[in-house]
Design brief:
Helices cover about 45% and strands about 15% of the residues. It is α/β, with parallel strands linked by helices. The chain has two domains: about 260 residues, no CATH class; about 300 residues, Alpha-Beta Barrel (TIM Barrel). The strands form three sheets. Strands 10-11-12-13-14-15-16-17 form an eight-stranded parallel sheet. Strands 8-5-4-1-2-3-9 form a seven-stranded mixed sheet, with helices on both faces. Helix 4 runs parallel beside helix 5, helix 11 packs across helix 14 and helix 29 packs antiparallel against helix 30.
């Protein structure tokens, strides 16, 4: 039997009638026992309110006395009377050598049977089925043991049947046929008419959640399950289950031990978890029930978890503004530019690109040619986005660069080509920023990004008014965030290009001035550009203004180049974070330094795949490529943040980057994913007070998210 079964579990003494009395209430479609009950409507309402369904099987536990043998015979005859109505199958377990439960040993045997059967019933019911326990039959010790079993293994409902006054003669020793049909409102007794149907009333006296102490491995003790405490599955109506002292471990003893030493065992469990952690994680996750923690730690991230990933609070620390938008959003920006441009400029722009629009594939040097079209570059880019077909855009932005793997081996410009119609091509146009900012905010909200660091080159977008451009971007982002319910903080990192060393100091001074004028919106400086041009050590003196202004530093280094560049970024530029840092995994001593100094590596899986080339099992052309170094860095204790780099160029989102990272390293558990997300927040370039506020809010949201059902049950629609 698979999990998801609806079960009725009963104890039975000499009165067999309690089984049909409960079953008749739970399954009126099979046996409408209470049809004539004066409170029939209330009985139905109570059952429906609790969501109780007709049992798919009836399980009965009893002793092996002569009196219970006679009761079982009557129960079997009753069940046979219902055969035409297709009643739930009946399974019976009888504990050997229990007789009338007249000794402690007999009670112990019965208790062990009750616990093992309740454990098995709870496993068969699972999360989707229901388990109803009937406390109406058997000796008081049996009812007490069954109630205790429900409290430790969990149950949907605990049901009893009350006698509301003296039972009529018809029900004192009923024939099986009497309880196989609706009870009459009245029956003829020795002294005349007697109330009948109203004398019985099923009631629910409670329900119970399973004990967390039994569901997880504690110290060297495995989780309590039928693997360790098996019970044969009863077939027929008179199965004897032999329980021999000492032959098997006692489930009753295990339950008592866990309840007695629960606090100590749980503390040991938490210590065991903490010892295995290489990175700081969310505080609230350690307050989850142990079963929730076990589920997070044992479940591998998969595409079915995308809805859960989108609800997971995340931070993206490495996102280039120029490559942030998808094609549809770039077209919206183009529409704004086009509508704001004078007719004469539109005509000129269309004339410049008309020959391109007439052919499926544009000239091979079209990106460079477009850059030469200043001062009409923004209008020309808008014309291409608006008047080129979907097929043309697909071919010239992406198709001509396929396969998009290890593009640096051919030319790095091939990686950037899909972004040639955004970024510098349009960001300098006054009409672009409001639409651009709204698209950025919309993307962040849709993907559960709570903290976003954009990076770009305002000195290129507005050479004479770079700070004014940054101020305008800040205003547009704030306007786009109006009405957004999700927490969202957006900051900016100014990029200095190592290919233009003569400009680096001016760009660094620009970042320092912007920080002074715009506050915490501008939070750092990034050294980017071709690593082969100038090393971090060579440009380090030009970063003095950033050091003096206490700006944070991130450096593109180790992206397909030797770890020497990463070393220089850490020691000469005092980098707080490293962009990509892929070759760091080749330098164990340097990894120790990064771990000890808490220097974070910003990994961008899709970008790293496209630029450098790593193995992704989803793409056969990548087989034989190196393994992505995330796992090596993470297990060495190096802080790692998963980022997007250029989500528009790689056609990705931060949630999808987590999925790709998991594929490229052979799997990540949901627990590891939450720790990676925490690392992103922890290394954000914001003041400590703001960082702690975000971490607190995200911690609470993540706790609530992880208390929900299994992550794969959260659909993408629910995530939206």
């Amino acid at each position: 039997m698979a999990p998801g079964l609806d079960l009725l579990l009963c104890t039975l003494g000499t009165s067999w009638a309690v089984v049909p009395e409960v079953y008749g209430w739970l399954a009126p479609g099979v046996l409408d026992l209470y049809r004539h009950h004066p409170e029939r409507a209330e009985l139905d309402r109570q059952r429906e309110l609790l969501g109780l369904r007709p049992p798919q099987e009836i399980w009965v536990l009893t002793t092996d006395s002569e009196r219970t043998t006679r009761a079982l015979e009557q129960l079997q005859r009753w069940h046979a009377c219902l055969r035409s109505a297709r009643p739930a199958p009946l399974r019976v377990w009888r504990a050997a050598h229990t007789g009338e439960l007249a000794s402690e040993e007999q009670c112990r045997r019965m208790r062990e049977l009750i616990l093992r059967c309740a454990l098995m019933a709870a496993e068969y019911a699972g999360a989707d089925g229901q388990l109803v326990l009937s406390l109406a039959g058997g000796r008081k010790t049996m009812s007490a043991d069954l109630q205790r079993a429900g409290s430790v293994f969990g149950c949907t409902a605990l049901v009893h049947v009350l006698d509301t006054g003296e039972l009529p003669s018809l029900l004192r020793e009923p024939a099986p046929t009497v309880l196989a049909a609706p009870l009459p409102a009245t029956a003829v007794g020795p002294a005349g008419p007697e109330d009948c149907a109203r004398r019985l009333r099923p009631v629910v006296i409670g329900s119970a959640m399973p004990s967390e102490l039994l569901q997880v491995r504690l110290e060297q003790r495995p989780a309590v399950s039928t693997r360790e405490f098996p019970l044969p599955l009863a077939e027929g109506h008179a199965v004897r289950w032999e329980w021999q002292p000492g032959a098997q471990a006692s489930l009753a003893d295990e339950v008592a031990l866990r309840e007695r030493e629960g606090s100590r065992l749980l503390y040991s469990y938490m210590q065991q978890l903490a010892r295995g952690e290489r990175h700081q994680g969310w505080r609230m996750l350690f307050r989850l029930p142990p079963t929730c923690m076990d589920r997070l730690r044992s479940t591998k991230l998969a595409p079915r978890h995308l809805g859960w990933l989108r609800r997971l609070p995340k931070a993206d620390l490495h996102c280039h503004i120029g490559g942030a938008l998808q094609i549809a959003q770039q077209r919206q920006v183009a529409r704004a530019i086009w509508e704001a441009s004078p007719p004469g400029r539109r005509t000129q722009a269309l004339e410049r690109v008309e020959s391109w629009l007439r052919q499926p594939r544009w000239p091979a040097d079209w990106p460079a040619a477009l850059r030469r079209l200043e001062p009409l570059r923004a209008e020309c880019a808008a014309a291409l986005l608006l008047y080129a077909s979907d097929a043309q855009l697909e071919e010239n932005l992406f198709g001509s660069t396929e396969p998009r793997i290890a593009l640096a081996e051919r030319a790095f410009a091939l990686y950037e080509q899909p972004g040639e119609l955004s970024g510098s091509a349009v960001l300098g146009h006054p009409a672009a920023l409001p639409v651009y900012a709204k698209a950025i905010v919309d993307n962040a909200v849709a993907d559960g990004v709570w903290y976003l660091e954009l990076r770009g080159s305002p000195q290129r977008y507005a050479p004479q008014q770079a700070i004014a451009w940054l101020r305008r971007l800040q205003q547009c982002l704030r306007q786009a965030q109006q009405g957004v319910q999700q927490p969202l903080e957006i900051r900016f990192v100014v990029i200095a290009d190592r290919r233009l060393p003569e400009q680096i100091e001016d760009v660094v001074r620009l970042a320092a001035s912007a920080r002074a004028q715009l506050g915490d919106f501008v939070v750092g400086v990034d050294l980017a550009g071709d690593e082969k041009s100038f090393s971090p050590a060579e440009v380090a003196p030009r970063f003095n203004p950033a050091f003096e202004a206490c700006l944070r530093i991130t450096v593109h280094a180790g992206e397909g180049q030797a770890p020497q560049n990463v070393w220089e970024a850490a020691y000469h530029l005092h980098a707080d974070r490293i962009g990509h840092g892929l070759s760091l995994a080749e330098h164990p001593r340097l990894m120790e330094r990064f771990r000890d100094r808490e220097i974070c590596v910003e990994l961008c899986p899709s970008s790293n795949y496209e630029v450098v080339g790593f193995c992704d099992p989803e793409h056969p052309e990548s087989l034989g490529r190196p393994t992505y170094p995330l796992r090596v860095l993470w297990e060495a204790g190096v802080p790692v943040a998963v980022c997007t780099d250029n989500p528009g160029i790689s056609r990705t989102t931060l949630s999808q980057e987590y999925l790709r990272a998991a594929r490229m390293v052979g799997g990540l558990t949901l627990w590891e994913v939450t720790a990676l997300a925490h690392c992103g927040f922890r290394h954000a370039f914001v003041p400590a007070a703001e960082r702690e506020r975000l971490l607190r809010l995200a911690d609470q949201a993540l706790f609530a998210l992880c208390l929900q059902p299994d992550p794969e049950q959260l659909s993408e629609t629910e995530a939206d």
